[in-house]
Amino acid sequence: MQELASEPVATQPIEERLELVRFKVDKRPHIRVHTEACRGCDLTPCVYVCPAGLFEILGGEMHFSYEHCLECGTCYVACERKAIEWDYPRGGWGVSFRAS
Amino acid sequence: MSLINNAADDAVFMRGESVAELWVVLQEQEGLPPEYNQEVLAEAKEVAAQYPGQLQLCAVQLRAPLSSPVEKSTVPFFKAVVPERLYVLEHPALGRYTTEGYVAALSWLIRERTPALIVTSATVNGQDWAPRLAAQLGLPFVARCLRFALEQEALLALRALYGGRAYVQTRTRLGRQPALVTFAPGTRGTPPMTGSPAVGLPMPEVITYQPSLAFEERNPSLQHLGIEAPSAEEVELEAAEKIVAGGRGVGREGFAELAAFARLLGAAVGASRVATDRGWVEPERQIGATGKSVSPRLYIACGISGAAQHTSGIREAQTVVAINPDRNAPIFALADLGLLGDAREILRHAMQLLQEESVGV
Amino acid sequence: MRIAVCLKQAPDCSSVYVDPVSGEVDRERFVQTLNAADACALEAALRLKEQRGGSLFALTLGPDESDEVLRVALAMGADTVERLWHPSAVDWGPLTIAAALAARLHADSSSLPDLIFCGEQSSDWASGTVGPALAAYLGLPQITGVIGLEALPDPSGQLLLRVTRRLERGYRERLLTRPPLLLTVHETLNEPRYPSLPAHLAALQATIAVCDPLSLPQFAPDVEAEEATIIEVRIPRPRPHRLAIPDSQLSPFERIGEIVSGGTSRRQTRLLEGPPEELAHELVRFLKERGFV
Amino acid sequence: MHAQQQFDAIVVGAGPAGSSAALVLARAGLRVALIERGEYPGAKNVSGAVFYAPGLLAELLPSFWDEAPFERYITRRVLTFLGKESAFSLDFHTRHFALPPYNGVTVLRPKFDRWLAGKAVEAGALLITSTVVDDLLYEGARVIGVQCRRDNGALYAPVVIAADGANSFLAKKAGLQREFSAEEMSLGVKEVLRLGTRTIEERFHLTGDEGMASEYVGEATGPIKGGAFLYTNRETLSLGIIVQIASLAQQRIRPYELLDRFKQHPAVAPLVRDGLTLEYSAHMIPEGGWQLVPRLARAGLLVAGDAAALVFAAGIFLEGMNFAVASGLAAAETALEAHQKGDFSAATLAGYRKRLEQSFVLQDLQRFRLTPAFVNNERLQNIYPELLCQAAEQVFRSEGRPRKKLGSTILTTLRSKVSLWTLLRDGWQAGRALFF
């Protein structure tokens, strides 16, 4: 039997998916990541659980962008170091689902 | 459904005359690329060509009377496309742009000549006087066309809707009066004007008017303080032809070098959110989802990894160069040229090369 | 000082979704909001009012749902609001709309407002016409594309405004002016305020006055003469790839094709590795080749 | 204090729980503030979304069946065990679910939630949109209002119903709920794909307004604990995966890649072929079940819906909206009772829990309290579905050779991966979790 998992799965880039979502981006970030706390974290669950792919490790440092946040709260639950200060954006800002 | 239509004998804009006129109102302004006029001329010429012998392409220039009779000619306006006729309307109040001056002058000329169609570039000033003129004279008006055409009884136009997310074709009924159209600048993508003025092209017939216009010279309450040119770093990102942008990989110190390189290139400085968040550059320089969307001809991304939040702002850049040490940086997927390395070092060397050349070594 | 602001409810562009297959705009997904430039016009008007005293009147022309933008205006600080509407107005273009607004502003028994603010353009049609046309109908001077506005101290006690207009490519025009005047405001002028809860609540519960523009004495729309009919809404760029400015050598048809398809091809990346000197050399060569230096 | 900022009841969150509560309270003549942080109700809300037992609302809204924006009513339920390249389905179709009161309907949340909130507004509730509630206001130990994130943002009421969703900041701030662990919370990511009405009816064997709710376990989420779903709307499909956050973090697979993998599974790909993605969304789901249900009330405060973790995610059951609505209604009834008594103490509001204990809400959660752990069992997630498919393959395979009896075929396949003892133990636990 041939292994399906070994075949590359064609994945749609996350940014293309996010293009379909409406964001009203507030200039004030609603989430802060205390990146000092991320140093030495090799599990980096946030990178893998965030459904919008907002966490990236670049050059050994945590890089986070809040703009296309889907406001699910998963990163906050997943982070064991409590490095994520999570809140909702101001009322009326942030993500709005239209077709779901 | 097509914008291209065959000429008809009984087109309403003919008004029983043998030849109708299609005007292109030329605009001059500090900082305004002359290509914008050229592009409208080229577009209008194509429309006129649909009605050979019936629709005459004319240009209209508004200006203050020249102090010396041997003036810097109007020829530099015309590169590839030369109108059949040029109306020069001279009035002391037309030395610089004012709404009232343009509206009064054009109202006068329209009464004098009654063209079939008036087109101008939808520049900031074009969008200032054209709608006002249309309202004042009751002319059919279509703003910011990407394309337009004449039918017997209507003006067909292609327009962008919702910030370019959709396009719409409209049909505006023409009456006996002329219609007014502004043409979205940059749509046609005229090649940059280099080289000498058109040589060997026929000269237009020039008709000069010096009417006494019935308007207060200017709104007395308005005082013009002047027009300020931006420095290279100040060029508004949205309007910049070239942008050199930096991100995390450039660092605070690197931005000085990046700015120097940008200056040499005549480019504006842009930045990713990391750079503006950390105060390396002022927030207005930010490109991306929380910043600006830009559409330069050249975009050089230095030390920018290319997170979606940034790249969503550079989708309309024509040529992209990316400099980044990380081979897997997503920015490379967007780039025409990718350089794997440290942006600061590469820029430093490139700057040297450019300077050496300009000195003529 | 009396200030009027003209507002429009328009779909937020981020909520506009056009089906790449059918080319149809999915209107169900629209999020209707106060047009961004209009919100800045409102904010600018409020700041002036707060500085100099006076009253602020916000009006809009639109169907029932447009009450929402007037509620935003009330919550932000407008003193009075009014909505103009007649079912036939769905077909009106910007010139007719401007004429209706002008008729309404004329209808007040006292004189015209000292200052009128409009957004420079709307997020849907972006024709930038209502402001200048309204100024024309009211016989007021206009300044369009305002990106800077400052009330200067003036010995005469009259309002003196220092205005910055945005021209092409970062050029700026600076003007000094006095009311009466109409200003159209660019959406970068300011950051509109976020209303307080009591103001928000009061606005939510306010009754919005409605006026039938056809009942206004100075308004007789000649809609037939003016407006464009929509023939067809076309497919935009289907995917958010880069939009190249089309080559002027192409035929008009091909150019429009390129515009609507979002540029025909995604270019291949040439990825280079090597010592910085060499890469710099390549960079300069590339820039020359493409005519950038 | 402005009279304008004083209400009889404040409901935080205009989802199904909040709007149902506000509807009941406003009907009873109370001055109700319904506060929503989105620009419109439903803007921030995501679920599958099958609304089971929608009849709960029909009692309140006589025109419900004609008016509510349903997509399709569910007449077909499918449970599929996915192997790597095979699928074993239980497929149930009944016309009995095709008549009001429907057993379940699919909805699109931005539409449905907006409609339901509109009903509360019609009844007299004041819907305050674009407003985040940051905290509760107290007098001593009693909750007396909420603090909104706006200037002068205090609103007062003797009773507050927190229906503020899965993250429920309010339940936590009130000390009713603890911080969640990554083991008890799931992440749902979803896409809505447009196929067209006709294709949907043909592809899923549906007629008229009939709809299908289909759930997947096993290879649907690869090695990650969770499952997948695929529901039919009128002209679109709602499809997504629901995965345990801890497991996702451990396996280091991004949720959207997992979703793509699911869409490309040979048993799923033909179902979604040519589907045009309309929207991508994500939401957290308190799937911990009984363990996660917080204290539901304190003086002046009631917690309803997802905020109270009232989600029934137990194997073949995946329900939330009905639990939300039922809890919203119970919270409102409790608040009304408190108003009648003029007593908003913890003791009076404890009636809320009793109401839920008498309804399916807490009874189902308690009865199936073992199920979440059982469903997240390593073998159930990653071994049995594949084994089941292999067994089925052995059973159905015709090789021109003499066959064994079915029982021995199946047992041999199962025992190849799992000891008999484990198998028995899992069987016993399955029984405890689901059957008796």
Short description:
Chain C is α/β, with parallel strands linked by helices.
Descriptors for this entry?
heterotetramer, A: alpha+beta, Alpha-Beta Plaits, two-stranded antiparallel sheet, 3 helices, 15% helix, globular, B: 361 residues, alpha/beta, Rossmann fold, 2 domains, nine-stranded mixed beta sheet, 7 helices
What portion of residues of chain D is helical?
25-40%
The tally of strands of chain A reads 6
Decide which structural class fits the backbone of chain A: alpha+beta
CATH topology of the domain at 29-96 in chain A: Alpha-Beta Plaits
Series of secondary-structure elements of chain A, N-terminal to C-terminal: HEEHEEHEE
End-to-end C-alpha gap of chain A: 38 Å
Instruction: Summarize the main sheet of chain A.
Output: 2 strands, antiparallel
Name the chain pair whose interface involves the most residues: B-C, 115 and 98 residues
- Judging by the overall fold, what is the CATH architecture of the domain at 29-96 in chain A? 2-Layer Sandwich
Estimate nothing, just give the exact number of structural domains of chain D.
3
What does this structure look like?
The complex is a heterotetramer of chains A (100), B (361), C (293) and D (436). Chain A is α+β, with helices and mostly antiparallel strands. Chain A has helices at residues 14-18, 45-49, 74-78; strands at 22-24, 31-33, 55-58, 61-64, 84-86, 94-96. Chain A has a domain at 29-96: 2-Layer Sandwich (Alpha-Beta Plaits). Chain A contains three helices and six strands; from the N terminus they run αββαββαββ. Mean pLDDT of chain A is 84; it is low at 1-9. Chain B is an alpha/beta fold and 361 residues long. Chain B has two domains: 20-209, Rossmann fold (3-Layer(aba) Sandwich), CATH 3.40.50.620; 237-358, Rossmann fold (3-Layer(aba) Sandwich). In chain B, 23% of the residues lie in helices and 25% in strands. Chain B is built from seven helices and 15 strands. In chain B, the strands form two sheets. Chain B has a nine-stranded mixed beta sheet, sandwiched between helices. In chain B, strands 12-11-13-14-15 form a five-stranded parallel beta sheet. Chain C folds into two domains: 2-225, HUPs (Rossmann fold, 3-Layer(aba) Sandwich); 239-293, no CATH class. Chain C has helices at 36-52, 67-76, 94-107, 130-138, 197-205, 223-226, 252-261, 276-289, and strands at residues 2-7, 9-11, 32-34, 55-61, 80-84, 115-119, 142-152, 160-166, 172-177, 181-185, 209-211, 228-234, 270-273. The longest helix of chain C is centred in the N-terminal third of the chain and has 17 residues, at 36-52. The relative contact order of chain C is 0.15. Mean pLDDT of chain C is 85; it is low at 236-246 and 260-266. Chains in contact: A-B, A-C, A-D, B-C, C-D. At the B-C interface, helix 1, helix 2, helix 3, strand 5 and strand 6 of B face helix 3, helix 4, strand 7, strand 8 and strand 9 of C. Strand 7 (166-173) of chain B pairs antiparallel with strand 12 of chain C.
